[in-house]
Amino acid sequence: MVVISNKLKFKSPLVVLLSCSLIFHPAPLYAWSQGGHTIIALVAWLQLDPQTRTKAVELLKQHERFQADFAALMPPSVSGGTQELKGQWTFLNAAYIPRLLLDAQ
Question: Where exactly are the structural domains of the chain?
Answer without folding.
Answer: 12-104
